[in-house]
Amino acid sequence: MDGNNYDRVALVSGGSRGIGAAVTSALAERGCRVGCTYRTGLEEAEKLAAGHPGQVLPVQFDLSDPATATAAVNRVVDHWGRMDSLILNAGQWAGGRLAETAADSWWRVIDSNLRGTVDLTRAALPYLATSPSPSIVLVSSVVGLIGHAGDTAYAAAKSAMVGFGRSLAKEVARDGIRVNILAPGFVATDMTDAVPLSSRKRIEDATILGRFGTVDEIARAAIFLSEEATFCTGSVLTADGGWAL
Ligand SMILES: NC(=O)c1ccc[n+]([C@@H]2O[C@H](COP(=O)([O-])OP(=O)(O)OC[C@H]3O[C@@H](n4cnc5c(N)ncnc54)[C@H](OP(=O)(O)O)[C@@H]3O)[C@@H](O)[C@H]2O)c1
């Protein structure tokens, strides 16, 4: 599978920016055709498509709108006739200590990270089941594995993705579908741009490799799980520079 990927079709959620954009580009460079979802970033998604003519298809998707999950999957399958890989990367960070966060806002973080991920998976499963080598990768976070003060909602959503993914791996193995989870640590993207300098320094000091990761490093880990790790299912791969050690 890792030699010639020219026939593979992938759907990458949150492909317009950050980690998802790096995954989209790297898959396209390997010869895959990629449905790349955007919520607000149509322009960014179109730029990615222009950089890989005929290989990247921008598709609208909003984690909180189940109709867009079905529409995104159908758009890719209508366009290319199949789906082999699903990379569930779209997500939103929102922090705040439990005692200082209103209940509605707290649950919105769970909903905005988890609901669309599950909806997209549900819509894609019938198509993945007809692929000769299908796979799903869920982009969780090390915060969901070890916890982080000020992140109870985000961590709970990312932790739920681990339980969801491992259970799904058991359900769909009979269809040949591998399901794996990627848990990045701190990565330089728009999401972490808001981290104040003092916290950034603390995070770098606590990361044994001494720095934030790059989107290309995370993309390589995602592609390993998606395309190359043919004996891995239900696995959780951390890519965090040793922050969680
Ligand atoms: N950066 C980190 O340090 C880090 C660490 C661990 C895990 N992660 C996880 O990795 C994934 C990607 O993170 P990132 O840092 O690359 O984020 P990012 O730069 O903020 O990009 C987020 C992507 O998700 C899309 N998105 C955001 N909210 C959405 C929604 N409600 N519905 C649909 N799409 C939505 C965005 O689309 P538009 O721009 O088109 O709106 C964008 O393509 C996330 O799941 C994040 O939780 C990130």
Automatic annotation (TrEMBL):
It comes from the Bacteria. The keyword Oxidoreductase applies. PROSITE patterns: ADH_SHORT. SUPFAM superfamilies: NAD(P)-binding Rossmann-fold domains (SSF51735). Residues 8-190 form the Ketoreductase domain. This is 3-oxoacyl-[acyl-carrier protein] reductase. One of its GO terms (molecular function) is oxidoreductase activity, acting on the CH-OH group of donors, NAD or NADP as acceptor. Keywords: Oxidoreductase. It comes from Williamsia limnetica. InterPro entries: KR_dom, NAD(P)-bd_dom_sf, Sc_DH/Rdtase_CS, SDR_fam. One of its GO terms (biological process) is fatty acid elongation. Pfam families: adh_short_C2 (PF13561). Signal peptide: none annotated. Belongs to the short-chain dehydrogenases/reductases (SDR) family.
